[in-house]
Design a protein that fits this description.
It is a single chain. By secondary structure, the protein is of the alpha+beta class. It has helices at about 1-10, 65-75, 125-135, 170-175, 185-190, 245-250, 265-270, 300-310, 310-320, 340-345, 355-360, 380-395, 405-415, 435, 445-450, 455-465, 470-485; strands spanning about 45-50, 80-85, 90, 95-100, 105-110, 150-155, 160, 205-210, 215-220, 235-240, 255-260, 275-290, 370-375, 400-405, 420-425, 490-505, 505, 525. The protein has a ten-stranded mixed sheet with strand order 8-9-10-1-11-16-12-15-13-14, with helices on both faces. A four-stranded antiparallel sheet has the order 4-5-7-6, covered by helices on one side. The radius of gyration is 23 Å and the shape is globular. The relative contact order is 0.17. The model is unreliable at about 1-25 and about 30-40 (pLDDT under 50).
Length: about 525
């Protein structure tokens, strides 16, 4: 496989490398993969054909905090725990877990699981994956609380994961796609080649071929521990970066699944013969992030003024149409810590130009000011929102320039804190608010995207992590979120729904609520 991959990569270098992305974008692709390639029409009973948004560049576990990246690696690797269709945490590679004390989680693994190369999956692989990610500073906020010095292997099926501070929701964090477990043996024997022999997991599929900017081909893992799965023996994931181009492909009916096409084409795709649209709720909210360290956004009055000038309902409806869910809470309703009443306290006044003008005058900008918003150029919905907001805030005397960037440079730009504001998404993937809040803690790149250096906020978060009573923990999460609302650190826009064009021949398509992953091993023919 390694030789074959090397050959196709060399042949395809003209496409360029798609840089690793973050957890914010539905597209997260820049311009990579906007070309399409002729494919056979769907109908092959042996092959599941998918159009996705992202060119991974590597298949390294934990390399990237972008949802689209996780959709890929989760076909190859597994996590210790998993959130089911009802939003409940279930054992996966782990059989069970219990706390030895406040900071040491003892994990018992399922027995008899093998990697795709036939080697045994053991506790050593778990601890190696975690410690390697931390030591190499991979962008995994879900490992932020883990102390590698306190992690250990007890025996082949038992390990202890130690944390820097008490974290009652650690098992929930371990369900995130960034926390997939790799093979230590494959890594060492193949010199860490995550475009070749090191790509070995316990997941439903194994990597056969990867052409950058074009296609990923996988085949069923004959050692997969889930009996009878996957139903499709082959999986082909075509990379198409433009949401408009994905919508066009959906209307051809040539693919089984088309992820995140342009929502403007929803009705046309839903009435395409042989295709229909399906929606799935997620724990993600798309925000307007306000950089509290970048003038003049370092003034809370300016931040609140901007929030008052926006008509969120009109903005989201314009951009997303029937798949939009204008924000009604600071994080997705139903997630522990979400409180609609508190949200209304700070954002309930909605679009209020006169209030915005008054706040700007108090901040010393009675004559208006000029600001810049950064947005991903390939994301049609986010660009539409930016343009709608541009028109709305003009009435308050704010001249808003829109800085459209490809995803890779955008991520670098905002992670360095160079922006005044940007449209970006955060996901409460633990099904509690800490899945969002942990991304704004010291040690996370995402903290630079809002610049909220508030020790009181950090301390309160740790207090919540150490609270074992769920009801009490939920109250602390509410208090953490209220701090962000009171200081207008970000403005919630859209509670994101997955929208996927699905071939009528498929059964078993479902949408996990915690993230935006797709479990292709569960899909079969009707």
């Amino acid at each position: 496989m390694r030789k074959a991959l090397a050959m196709v990569l060399a042949a395809s270098c003209v496409f360029g490398l798609a840089a690793c992305g973050g957890s914010g974008s539905e597209n997260a692709s820049g311009e990579a993969g906007t070309q399409t390639t002729t494919t056979e029409a769907s109908g092959d009973a042996d092959t599941l054909k998918v159009i996705q948004t992202y060119d991974p560049g590597t298949f390294e576990p934990g390399n990237n905090d972008e949802q689209s990246y996780q959709r890929i690696v989760l076909q190859i690797y597994d996590t210790l725990t998993r959130v089911d269709a009802d939003g409940n945490l279930q054992p996966w590679l782990a059989e069970s877990w219990e706390w030895d004390d406040d900071t040491h989680l003892r994990v018992k693994l399922k027995e008899g699981i093998k990697f795709s190369d036939g080697s045994d999956f053991t506790a050593e692989d778990v601890i190696w994956t975690i410690t390697r990610a931390i030591e190499n500073n991979l962008p995994n906020a879900h490992f932020n609380m883990i102390d590698p010095a306190e992690c250990s292997v007890v025996d082949d099926t038992t390990c202890i994961i130690g944390t820097k501070y008490a974290c009652a929701t650690l098992p929930n964090h371990l369900a995130n796609g960034q926390c997939v477990i790799g093979s230590k043996k494959a890594y060492e024997e193949n010199n860490g080649d995550y475009l070749g022999g090191a790509v070995v997991g316990t997941g439903a599929y194994k990597l056969d071929e990867y052409v950058q900017g074009d296609i990923i081909k996988l085949s069923a893992n004959e050692n997969y521990w889930q009996e009878g799965k996957p139903a499709f023996r082959k999986l082909e994931m075509r990379i198409v970066g433009s949401s408009d181009a994905r919508a066009t492909e959906a209307k051809t009916g040539a693919y089984d699944l088309v992820l995140a096409p342009n929502s403007r084409e929803y009705d046309n795709m839903d009435t395409t013969p042989g295709m229909h649209m399906e929606l799935g709720n997620t724990a993600k909210t798309v925000y307007l992030l306000l950089n509290t360290k970048k003038a003049p956004m370092d003034d809370v009055k300016v931040r609140e003024a901007f929030a008052r000038a926006i008509d969120v309902n009109a903005t989201v409806t314009l951009a997303y149409g029937k798949v939009g869910k204008p924000a009604e809470a600071f994080i997705t309703p139903g997630i522990l810590g979400s409180n609609a009443d508190t949200y209304k306290k700070y954002f309930g006044a909605g679009h209020d130009i006169e209030a915005s003008k008054a706040l700007l005058a108090d901040a010393g900008y009675a004559d208006g000011l000029t600001l810049e918003m950064t947005v991903e150029s390939a994301d049609a919905q986010r660009c539409d929102m930016a343009e709608a907001i541009q028109a709305q805030v003009a009435d308050a005397g704010i001249t808003l320039n829109i800085n459209k960037m490809e995803y890779a440079p955008l991520r670098e730009y905002i992670s360095a804190g160079n922006h005044q504001m940007c449209i970006y998404g955060f996901t409460a993937s633990t099904m509690e608010a800490d899945g969002f809040l942990n991304q704004l803690q010291p040690g996370s790149d995402a903290l630079n995207r809002v610049g909220y250096d508030n020790q009181e906020f950090f301390d309160l978060f740790k207090e919540g992590c150490g609270t074992t009573d769920q009801t009490e923990r939920g109250k602390i999460w509410e208090d953490c979120l209220e701090m962000l609302m009171k200081d207008y650190v970000c403005i919630p826009l859209n509670h994101y729904q997955q929208f996927v064009a699905v071939n009528d021949r498929l059964d078993g398509v479902w949408f996990p609520q915690d993230y935006e992953e797709m479990h292709y091993e569960d899909i079969k023919l009707k």
